[in-house]
Amino acid sequence: MARGDDYVFQAGDACGHNTIIATIPPGQEYGTGSAAALASQVKKFFPRLWFGLLVGVAAGLPNLSRSPPRDIRLGDVLVGLSEGGSAGLVAYDLGKETETVGFQLLRSGYVLAITETAVRSAIGSIKLNAPNDADVFSQYYKSIAYEEHPHGSGEKLMKNARKRNELRDRYDLIGLEMEAAGTMNRIPVGVIRGVCDYGDAHKNKEWQPYAAAMAAAYAKAVLAELVPKNVLPEPRTMNVRPQGRLDEDDEPLASVTINGRKKRRIEQRSEASGARALPFDNERPISQEVNSSTRDFDNVIQDTSEPLYGAGHFIEAPVKQSIIDQLYFTKIDERLTRIAAAQIKTCRWFLTKPEYKSWHDTAEHPDHGGFLWIKGNPGTGKSTLMKLLFEDTKSNERGDPSRITLSFFFLGRGTVEEKSVTGLYRSLLHQLFQKEPRLRDSLDWMTADGAKVVQRNGWHEETLKQTLAHAVQSLGRRSLTIFIDALDECDQEQVSGMVCCFEELCDRARKAHVRLHICFSSRHYPTVVIQTGIEVTLEDEPGHTEDIKRYIKVRLRLPNPRSSQAESLLSKVLEKSSGIFLWVVLVLDILNSEYAKGSGRIKKMRDRLEEIPPKLNDLFEMILTRDEENLLRLQLCLKWILFAMRPLKPQELYFAIELGCDKECTGYWDEEDVDLDTIKAFVRMCSKGLAEVTRNSRASGLESPATLQAIVTSF
Predict the structure, then answer these.
(1) How many angstroms separate the CA atoms of 30 and 198, rounded?
(2) For the chain, how far is it from start to end, CA to CA, in angstroms?
(3) What is the pLDDT of residues 19-42, one digit of tens each?
(4) What is the per-residue pLDDT across 614-624, written as a single tens digit (0 to 9) for each?
(5) Last residue of a domain, one of 522, 539, 556
(6) Domain range spanning residue 558?
């Protein structure tokens, strides 16, 4: 080792990543200065370092007086995350003392680098799986909790409860530690700490090993969320021991050659020892291997000239099939099947609309970038239109192998997969691999170890996006059309990122001569902007108005539909609807009920229409509060639909309501007495038209997967 090279590093692998472990030697003083010196040498010897994780112990700062209480306990994990523009760390003793305001943080605390982006992404992915996140980082630690917020970092070991509370309250901290501020501006790092005390006089070293282990478990979960960069199969890693040389007792050994140097691999030890099978260079001291040249280390870690131990560059078929199977989720197309089909002769005007034809025309692709965005107010029928467009495009692709059509319909009240971009990407890839199995080779952009990480931990959003990009680029001179409905039912930040992803995907597809067409639909808010594209506002379209008019003529019950009174009533309904299809559906139910009551029909229907509010939300309120009839059934119906842990079958809702109203109503169920049509009418009556039963169009019979569809979507 050269003068000034004061540290020996442990090298190995974790979750497919090549890793280096560096620690402050026993006896050396702790603090930001020692941490900075260590970080500088890490950066010197390993210039290709992606990011670091600062893992260890800290003092936890609970605050039970705040709302909500911040309950931090021994063994919990503290994760330093950025707040606004801050670094997720507060160097609380780095600043200036002034006469007017006393101590001030240097540059208001904005002196440290922001937490590494990859680390923040991985933490966000772990957080997405809450409340089952404890299972991610260790099956043995079921009671672990973790907090995400800025940490305090300084040179002092805190044993003063009063001073601790002052720092906690002034900077809104969750923990105090002594090293992070020294590393943040030297290497990209994420801070993960286990709570071993509370920063007061009651220090207890017995908690330190446990707290450190908890932090290490969470750190491993972070690594597991990230796809390794340029890694080799696991046996390519090397071990670096603080003793400086390999023990000669590490037999038996197997030999292999890398870059002309002979390597030896220690065979797998027993599980009790916790050791792993790793290759080592036994020809020279390990300290020389690390310190003589960073190029030597890169040769060992990054060499891809030949496979080791029979491992190749391509993903094994069973692993590939396994990660493809993980794309599927149980409700992958349930939303699509539950959307009511367009009424006869409605929506088809859109197929001949010039903007729609232009979007399909590849020659005009430079003008719109392949994007069509259909926007409309709640209840205008966007999803019904999107379903028709998807099914029409899909039917036209039959017999033409050069065309592929995919779809995804977001559902805000659905499962995590149904309302997230992760579910979107999984669904699109699943459909793509089903339609064109040869595209599975696009998975080979991953390394074998990267694929195993996906197999072990599931798909990560970034991995899905990269796989989708490679799959689309592999289509060649083919046409791919994607329909994505209800972007407003997904988180706005996710949607913004997704739109950017698809804009980049269109650019890549264009360079690969792939004809990519993407159609979005959403409400007008939240606002998401695309650089180029065609935008259509549904309620402003004459064809949409004609659809509503046609629907009213078919559905409105009138004694003489051709009379002047009937025409006047129809025009009044159309005018008052403001282009909201759902408003018309609900109002026609009310008017038809008036028609069924008998004498003076047209006049009573006209008077009833005058009482109906023009806004959809006001109409919902009126429906729920207009009378006391069947109020108990209405309450039970809505409670069961809204609060059930899973979507109910129509039969389940029927009996739940009946038993809720009359507990003596028990006995055997006779299908002839209570068939599906009876249940449909019952659900519509109990919900006052706010829910209905829909049937999967691909099945039939009473036991087919008929499901409940809540009409209410805009409270």
Answers:
(1) 18
(2) 69
(3) 988 887 776 666 666 777 787 788
(4) 988 888 888 77
(5) 539
(6) 543-625
